[in-house]
Amino acid sequence: MAAGGEEVHYVYIVRCSDGTLYTGWTNHLERRIQVHNEGRGAKYTRSRRPVELVYAERFATKTEALRRECAIKRMTRREKETLFEKRIVAKTDL
Fold it and tell me: Residue 64 is part of which domain span?
């Protein structure tokens, strides 16, 4: 939960050990990545461990996060890669 007791929702992309990308949503990002890496996450990632978090966005509501998750899942691989490449550049510019 965020400060003030408000729940926060995340959309995230992980890179699996075979190089594929998986997109999901959660309200506990660190715990969700851990669950994926323990083999208790999504069926898709169970046989593709370990996974590495490459991108995440934060939202105030579950509805917003789910809409964004759907939008990202409709993107091509290249469009998804552009998302997290831009985020890396933006972080280094700070």
Answer: 3-93
Residue whose tokens read 């996450």: 41
Q: Number of structural domains, the chain?
A: 1
8 Å CB contact between 33 and 73: no
Structure-derived torsion over alpha carbons of residues 45, 48, 52, 53, reported in degrees to the nearest 10: -20
More confident residue, 87 or 90: 87
pLDDT of 47-67, one tens digit each? 999 999 999 999 999 999 999
Q: Return the C-alpha torsion angle 59, 41, 37, 49, nearest 10.
A: -110
CATH of residue 11's domain is: 3.40.1440.10
